[in-house]
């Protein structure tokens, strides 16, 4: 048989357990959304939305763009200066750009068929020696608009500390 004191203690215990579980769940949710989104390579599924339309922008929580469709959208909107990450297949190798800082250049085709010029600064980062048409290259750099499809540059570390560093990944190695 339950006494009044026993029932009060039981209700108090259930309430305490509920509050502790609720706090733990909220803390776990907070950590999952905010701390992981700030880690490089994490947060790929955490995207932002356009406040006026509510549409997914494709922007990762760390400020990078993460989809072929977003790069195509940047091209269609004539936008530049956006950090992007992606992967493509080398269509064509071009001669190095020797004016100013030297850049290794090649054309990448994304999965959706969009093509990009990659301009990789070889005065700062190592050249991708042995790169061939048909090779897969992942990139993280700054997208810029051009009539030909746009391009990716800043695929190297920032020696001045003024810009987000980038990289290329090819044949199991990261070039920055």
Tell me about this structure:
The chain has 2 helices and 9 strands. It is an alpha+beta fold and 176 residues long. The N and C termini lie far apart (73 Å). Strands 3-4-5-7-6 form a 5-stranded mixed barrel. A two-stranded antiparallel sheet has the order 1-2. It is 24% helix and 30% strand. It has 2 domains: 1-37; 47-175, Beta Barrel (OB fold (Dihydrolipoamide Acetyltransferase, E2P)). It has helices at 4-37, 68-76; strands spanning 47-49, 56-60, 82-93, 103-109, 115-121, 136-144, 151-153, 167-170, 173-175.
Q: Which key terms come to mind for this protein?
A:
two-stranded antiparallel ribbon; OB fold (Dihydrolipoamide Acetyltransferase, E2P); 5-stranded mixed β-barrel; 176 residues; single chain
Order of strands, widest sheet: 3-4-5-7-6
What's the helical proportion of residues? Answer: 10-25%
Give the full name of the CATH homologous superfamily of the largest domain. Nucleic acid-binding proteins
Largest sheet: 5 strands, mixed, barrel
Low-confidence stretches: 31-58, 60-65
DSSP strand content: 25-35%
Helix segment count?
Answer: 2
Give a summary of the structure in a few sentences.
The chain has two helices and nine strands. The protein is α+β, with helices and mostly antiparallel strands and 176 residues long.
What is this structure's SSE topology?
Elements (H helix, E strand, L loop, with lengths): L3 H34 L9 E3 L6 E5 L7 H9 L5 E12 L9 E7 L5 E7 L14 E9 L6 E3 L13 E4 L2 E3 L1
Parallel strand pairs: 5-7
Antiparallel strand pairs: 1-2, 3-4, 3-6, 4-5, 6-7, 6-8, 8-9
């Amino acid at each position: 048989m339950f006494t009044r004191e026993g029932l009060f203690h039981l209700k108090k215990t259930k309430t305490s357990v509920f509050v502790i579980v609720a706090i733990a769940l909220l803390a776990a949710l907070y950590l999952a959304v905010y701390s992981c989104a700030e880690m490089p390579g994490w947060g790929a599924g955490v995207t932002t939305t356009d406040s006026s339309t509510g549409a997914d922008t494709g922007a990762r929580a760390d400020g990078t763009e993460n989809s072929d469709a977003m790069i195509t959208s940047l091209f269609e909107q004539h936008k530049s200066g956006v950090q992007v990450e992606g992967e493509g297949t080398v269509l064509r190798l071009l001669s190095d750009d020797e004016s100013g800082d030297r850049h290794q250049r090649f054309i990448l085709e994304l999965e959706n068929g969009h093509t990009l010029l990659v301009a990789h600064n070889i005065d700062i980062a190592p050249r991708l020696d042995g790169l061939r048409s048909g090779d897969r290259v992942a990139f993280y750099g700054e997208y810029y608009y051009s009539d030909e499809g746009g391009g990716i540059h800043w695929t190297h570390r920032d020696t001045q500390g003024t810009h987000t560093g980038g990289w290329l990944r090819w044949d199991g190695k990261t070039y920055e």
